[in-house]
Amino acid sequence: MVASTSFKPLRVVGLMSGTSMDGIDAAYLETDGESFVQEGPALTVPYAPVFRARLGAFITAAPDRGASPVEESLEAELTDLHASAVEHLLETMGVTPAAVDLVGFHGQTIWHRPADGATWQMGDGQRLADALGIDVAFDFRSADMAAGGQGAPLLPIYHAALAARHALPAAILNVGGVANLTCVGARIDDLSGFDTGPGNGLIDDWVSKRLGIAMDDGGAVAAKGHVHSDIVARLLDHPFFGMRPPKSLDRFAFSADYVKDLGTEDGAATLTAFTAASVARALADCPGHPQKLFVTGGGRHNPRLMALLTEYTGLPVASVDEIGWNGDALEAQAFAYFAVRCLRGLPLSFPGTTGVKKPTCGGRIAAPRAQRKTAPRAQRKTKSA
Q: In 3D, which of 194, 190, 191 has the Cα closest to residue 180?
């Protein structure tokens, strides 16, 4: 990618709340939306348990999109939490909102139905712009789906911008609730990406149901269990794995019913192996035969999953942090990058990433309707990313 010499990099905050529903990542980035990327501070604001439970119940019900009192209340609270996350980040930086040119707001995915050409990211871009007094880019997936794409994954173009600093080709695996793979070839034209299957989602659901905990922290539960390879094989019979990429899926496309008769530890071990095995299968569709797999997202903090990725793929597996990327902030940074591309009318999705027929722009810009007022504040524990 060759950056435009006439476009000055913007100061942007990117926001991401993933399908793991653990909280909001906020990251500061200076970028021209092309080759210039300078990362800044980032933090994570966890969802309060009560809010996470409400959000999870709403998502599990998978309602059709439409106004309802519950939906409107949840969306307003979700948006205000994102406004607070931006404020927390700016406070840690010691700057005011006037120091930011743009915010990239992904919102919370409620469902993603590529077969129906529909996706739903909850979040009110206009409300966020009004609260912060900053222009907000949002609704990044709809244009791609309207043009015949899958609406996901969007991350490959940002991965490619970062990978340009290193020797190509590269394979970058993002493990959130769902896992997706970016394959960067010798040229930007070789860029491809697709969902590989489950990420942490099934594992999180399993330990939540059995143990009442949010996640298998460090893979400790799975490490004590036995992998039932016959069940992994049956899970891999799902039609999704017979599809050629580009392809994407919903957080709830897979079920843990296959392991319902197992003990807690064996179930966790088997579902963790399923994630690793599905990645190994996906690598066969990654052009360029990558020699190493770099992992980002929450999954890289799970040593058991990382070990199984090495075992099933036969490749060296490393965290993206080893090459200087911030794996906790990467998705939030990406949406800051996408916000600038939206503003500039540069494409977010490509035939090799979402299956759209031609490179397609995405996103909408909401400008504040009035002078900034005090943004909603939510007292939340934060952690540095």
A: 194
51 sits in which H/E element = helix 49-61
H or E element that contains 306: helix 303-313
Q: What was the pLDDT predicted at 102?
A: 98
Alpha helix (H) residue ranges in 147-238: 156-163, 201-211, 220-223, 229-235
Orientation angle between helical segments 303-313 and 264-283, nearest 10 degrees: 40
Does residue 17 come out as left (phi exceeding 0), alpha (psi in the -120 to 50 range) or beta?
beta
Q: CB count, 10 Å around CB of 94?
A: 7
Same domain, 86 and 131: yes
Q: Whole-model pTM above 0.70?
A: yes
Torsional class of 345: left (φ above 0), alpha (ψ -120 to 50), beta (otherwise): left
Identify the residue whose tokens are 């933090």.
43
Burial (CB count within 10 angstroms: exposed 0-12, middle 13-18, buried 19+), residue 67: exposed
**Domain termination site, one of 300, 323, 346:** 323
Widest Cα–Cα separation across the chain: 62
Read off the pLDDT of residues 22-68 as tens digits, 9 standing for 90 and up.
899 999 999 999 999 999 999 999 999 999 999 999 988 877 777 78
On whether both 222 and 245 belong to a single domain, the answer is yes
For residues 356-365, one letter each, b for 16 or more C-beta atoms within 10 angstroms of the residue's C-beta and e for the rest, the string is beeebbbbee
Q: What is d(CA 1, CA 12) in angstroms, rounded to the nearest whole number? A: 20
Among the listed residues 39, 29, 36, 38, the one whose alpha carbon sits nearest the alpha carbon of residue 1: 36
Q: How far is CA 240 from CA 115, 221, 276, 278, 344, in A?
A: 11, 27, 15, 10, 35
CATH number of the domain enclosing 369: 3.30.420.40
Name the 3-class secondary structure at 304: helix
Residue showing tokens 């919370």: 108
